[in-house]
Specification:
Blueprint (H helix, E strand, L loop, with lengths): L2 E4 L2 E4 L6 H7 L23 E4 L6 E2 L10 E3 L3 H16 L15 H9 L17 E2 L4 E3 L9 H8 L6 E4 L6 E4 L12 H5 L5 E3 L11 E7 L8 E7 L15 E6 L12 H4 L2 H6 L16 H17 L3 E5 L5 H14 L3 E4 L20 H8 L5 H9 L5 E5 L13 H6 L2 E6 L11 E4 L8 E4 L4 E5 L12 H11 L10 H11 L8 H4 L4 E2 L4
Parallel strand pairs: 1-5, 14-15, 14-16, 16-17, 17-18
Antiparallel strand pairs: 1-2, 3-4, 3-5, 6-7, 7-10, 8-9, 11-12, 12-13, 19-20, 20-21
Helix pairs in contact: 2-3, 8-13, 9-10, 9-13, 9-14
The protein binds FE2/S2 (inorganic) cluster.
């Protein structure tokens, strides 16, 4: 294992490690633009120049392999002078439009100009002008004046999606990033080029001008769009709504960006997951209890009515329950416990299969917690079997627990089947789909509104986090199940938090044995086979 010294610190690294990686691994920051851990090394920005003993010229740290005995200095006068010169080059034609740029506040050009720039420009000629707000795809806009030609976006399309929509055009100082005629940046991972762009050249249409980034509160959580369970940061607005008299915080989700996890999603997410939050705000929400649908009811009254309905059906052996594979493990376990406490019910988990697995991240199974549901409820808990039992008249009362992300994934019951049911109780965050025509409805928290755990298709258990308050009267599903259990006379398990439920889960479900919330950390823990 080679040992090198960076700024006086001895570092032992694996063979093949670059000087930049070695320095970053011990917290020594070397400024860089074009290098990215998920892409090939291009070495074209020259921002990472360092001095290496016995080497006459400055070297780029991102493309220099660490070797035994190497002595590297990152803060000498020559290095600082080279960095300042590079910053001066980057800014010569830059429009300096930070006040109206979405990247402001998280822009490497801003940060490095402050940390490494000379603070002035000697360039007095007119700046080159180029195209602004170029529409290059369904989600991405390009500002050619802000681009520093680091080529990260080009390499992403060449190496990750292998779609090669982006390329350099022209030569010299006129070099520009662009798309080939008639070939928009329309691959299903296009939003990643916005995250990769270290400046404000590529912006996401859906986030553009929505807020300043310093008003965002970022919560690390897990995407619910498919069984991959990509690690993400959900950014919620915290800006006081200045134009209203209510003084309410604008705490809607403003964007979702990837959070690196080499075991799950690397550095990327798909556009479907990135924009999944739009379904949360566009779908009609169930904001309070109703009994029946359309008639607001007190929580306690609706709970009592639902509990009596479920208990009567369970004691007659005619109760069924449809659960979403996007419910967190804690909710699934609480519903299972409730149904067993009532006397038993046939449980069916919805299957959310669409298309095929792709070669990057997307899984055909859109159930973010399908694996967790199988561990908790059994592999054979199928919605289709349950619905057949309804059709045969074996079940006359149904509890439907709606989808926490997309009401389209909890569709209305088939009219012929609905006619065979005497009662339907609906629990969920959306007033749509299966909620229509229910006899009693209870609102729950949606995805990003409650804490819990998901198990992805690989058997990795990961923490899902509450990112903002639930809308209306929505409560976490496990709490609603407890309320119903109390109204039905089932013994109180004493849970007061999702961590309590997880502890009970870890005792009851072998695959989750010994698990506790603290052990999951930010990257989760692998528990099952492939
Ligand atoms: Fe090394 Fe760009 S980061 S040359």
């Amino acid at each position: 294992m080679p040992k090198l010294t960076v700024d006086g610190r001895e570092i032992e690294v694996a063979p093949g490690t670059t000087v930049l990686q070695a320095a970053l691994s011990v917290g020594i920051e070397i400024p860089h633009y074009c290098w990215h851990p998920g892409l090939s090394v291009s070495g074209n920005c020259r921002m990472c120049l360092v001095e290496i003993e016995k080497v006459p010229k400055l070297q780029i740290a991102c493309a220099t392999e660490a070797s035994d005995g190497m002595v590297v200095r990152t803060g000498t006068e020559r290095v600082l002078g080279a960095r300042a010169a590079m910053m001066e080059f980057f800014l010569i034609h830059h429009p300096l439009d930070c006040p109206i740029c979405d990247q402001a506040g998280e822009c490497r050009l801003q940060e490095y100009a402050v940390e490494h720039g000379a603070g002035r420009s000697r360039y007095v000629e007119a700046k080159l002008r180029s195209n602004k707000a170029v529409d290059i795809g369904p989600h991405v806009l390009l500002d050619q004046e802000r681009c520093i030609r680091c080529s990260r976006c080009v390499r992403f399309c060449d190496e990750v999606t292998k779609t090669s929509e982006l390329a350099f055009f022209r030569r010299g100082e006129s070099t520009r990033i662009g798309i080939h005629p008639g070939r928009p940046l329309a691959n299903p991972y296009s939003g990643n080029v916005v995250d990769l762009c270290p400046v404000g050249a590529l912006t996401l249409k859906e986030f553009r001008f929505q807020t300043r980034v310093w008003f965002l509160k970022n919560t690390p959580t897990v995407c619910a769009a498919c069984a991959r369970g990509c690690n993400v940061l959900v950014a919620v607005g915290q800006q006081q709504a200045m134009m209203t008299t209510s003084g309410q915080l604008d705490d809607r989700i403003k964007r979702i960006v990837p959070r690196p996890n080499d075991e799950v999603n690397g550095h990327w997410i798909c556009d479907e997951g990135r924009l999944s939050y739009e379904r949360l705000s566009s779908a009609p929400r169930l904001l309070s209890a109703e009994a029946p649908a359309g008639s607001p009811a007190e929580w306690s009254e609706a709970v009592a009515r639902a509990a009596a309905t479920l208990r009567d059906a369970a004691s007659a052996g005619k109760l069924g329950a449809i659960l979403s594979p996007r419910l967190v493990c804690e909710d699934l376990f609480a519903w299972k416990r409730l149904l067993e406490g009532l006397g038993g019910a046939r449980i069916g988990v919805r299957r959310l299969l669409r298309g095929e697995d792709d070669a990057i991240l997307v899984r055909a199974d859109r159930g973010a917690n399908s694996r967790g549901a199988a561990w908790i409820l059994g592999e054979d808990a199928e919605e289709s079997d349950l619905l057949r039992a309804v059709g045969r008249g074996e079940i006359d009362t149904l509890l439907v627990v709606g989808d926490p992300l997309d009401p389209g994934d909890a569709p209305a019951l088939d009219a012929a089947l609905r006619a065979r049911l005497s009662r339907v109780a609906f629990v969920g965050p959306f007033a749509a789909g299966a909620a229509a025509g229910a006899d009693v409805l209870l609102p729950t928290a949606a995805w990003a509104e409650e804490d819990g755990t998901y198990v992805n298709f690989q058997g990795r258990v990961q923490r899902v986090r509450r990112c903002h308050r639930p809308r209306g009267g929505g409560r976490p599903g496990w709490r609603v199940a407890l309320d119903l259990g109390e109204a039905a006379g089932i013994a109180d398990p004493g849970w007061t938090s999702p961590d309590d439920v997880l502890r009970a889960l870890a005792e009851a479900v072998p695959e989750l044995g010994g698990l506790d919330a603290g052990a999951l950390g930010l990257l989760g823990a692998k528990r099952g086979g492939p």
